[in-house]
Amino acid sequence: MRTLILTASLLLLAGCAGFGLPRHDPAQAWIDLDSKQEDTALQALEVDDKATEDNRYFQIQPGSHELTVRYQFSVQPTNIGPDAEPLWRDCQLNVKFNDFNAGERYQLQAGNIGFRPWAKLYDQQRKVIGLGTPAGCQHT
Q1: In angstroms, rounded to a whole number, what is the distance separating the alpha carbons of residues 35 and 79?
Q2: pTM to 2 decimals?
Q3: Which residue positions does the secretion signal occupy (predicted)?
């Protein structure tokens, strides 16, 4: 029985490994996505108004680009009113940067303060190189 469970576990892990992120193309810039708070979702939507192929990251040509992300988060009752339920927000943010470099990894982080989402783009040295501007939110 243990052998069966071990075999099934290894097959499951091997299957999940196929769904990992692709290799980073050294001729392009790579942007990892990270939401800073629990129970949130951050997704890559567009590069220069064109839909991304994979919403887990951006991989782009060097140069100037505008990235659009979708950030979903919950506004807690402490920011709404004493008898309120959490309120879910679904927002888009745009981040522009003029000098993406080939082979470099960047990180785009998002979070919120109450109803207001924010996004920051970091270079490899953890220096903030871009800030997100809200592009619209909806309540869900």
Answers
A1: 19
A2: 0.79
A3: 1-19
